Amino acid sequence: MSLEGTLETIAIPDVLALLSVTSKTGELAVDSSGARGRLWMDQGRVAGYDVGRSKSLADALFALLRLEEGSFSFAEASSEPANAVAPAEVAPLLEEVEARLALWPAIKATVPSLEAPLSLAESVAQVVTLTPEQWRLVAAIGGGKEVGAVLDELGLGEFEGCKAIAELVELGLVRAPAPAAPLAEEPEPVEVEVPDSLADFAPEPIAAWDVPLEPASASEEAVAEPEPEPEPEPEPVNRGLLLKFLGSARN
Q1: Which residues 6+ apart lie within 8 Å of 111 measured at CB?
Q2: What is the overall mean pLDDT for the chain?
């Protein structure tokens, strides 16, 4: 049986489940830009691994399950396992690794990478009791080392080692750099056409007869003021009647 594909189309857990239910024996090779490794199957069970700095079978699966792109291939004709272990069932292994993956984001927020520099705090605010394993970590960090160097010195896997270092950081004994914030994407430049002269902005002349004249609405019409009424002209005096009135008054 030969099986191959990409991690974008079928994930490693699905590949292992298929090899388990079909009780296959052979070698599963995974190739990615993030990691490269091999797993050996024996009658549907995982019997060996060779994945980076992995110290155990769970470490190997933990590294492979974090890959998001790459390819895989399985061949029934295989070589001897690089790190042979007692054949382990696939389902319990996947459950253990899934539990690790659930905790990993919080650990990575404290210990961002294997290249992160570590140093001991100058002082602590409270009394701290350390286990022998924690004291070994403190002693290994000493005056300052990278995470990967500490794990290699103590023979710890990535998950267990980073988890223990994160606990020391939370206790205030160890300092680790904060993960870098993602850079904001720069907006794409916008091309703007610049006219050769300001004359290009001048509006075209409009002939007077091209503009239709709309009649003014009733509300816009001026209201005519009423003309004042002329004062009545005095009637002419009748001289004859006036003289007659004056003559009778004297008598």
Answers
A1: 147, 162, 165, 166, 169, 176
A2: 81
Beta bridge partners of 84: 48
d(CA 162, CA 105): 11
Q: CB neighbours of 108 closer than 8 A, spacing ≥ 6?
A: 162, 179
Q: What is d(CA 163, CA 160) in angstroms, rounded to the nearest whole number?
A: 5
From the CB of residue 66, how many other CB atoms can be counted at a distance below 10 Å?
Answer: 16
Give the model's pLDDT for residue 16. Answer: 95
DSSP 8-state assignment for residue 127: -
**pLDDT for res 181:** 55
Element spanning 45, H or E: strand 45-51
| Amino acid sitting at position 144 | G
pLDDT for 136 equals 94
Distance separating alpha carbons of residues 36 and 60, to the nearest angstrom = 10
Beta bridge partners of 40: 27, 48
Residue position matching structure tokens 């070994």: 136
Inter-axis angle of helices 158-170 and 132-141, to 10 degrees? Answer: 90
H or E stretch at 126: none
C-alpha distance from residue 81 to each of 101, 109, 175, 192, 219 (Å): 26, 35, 39, 63, 99
Cα separation, 146 vs 155, in Å, equals: 14
| CA–CA gap between residue 153 and residue 235 (Å, rounded) | 136
C-beta neighbour count of 65 within 10 angstroms: 17
Cβ proximity of 65 and 12 under 8 Å: yes
Secondary structure of residue 5 in the 3-state scheme: strand
SS3 state of residue 172: coil
Centre a 10 Å sphere on the Cβ of residue 193 and count the other Cβ atoms it contains: 5
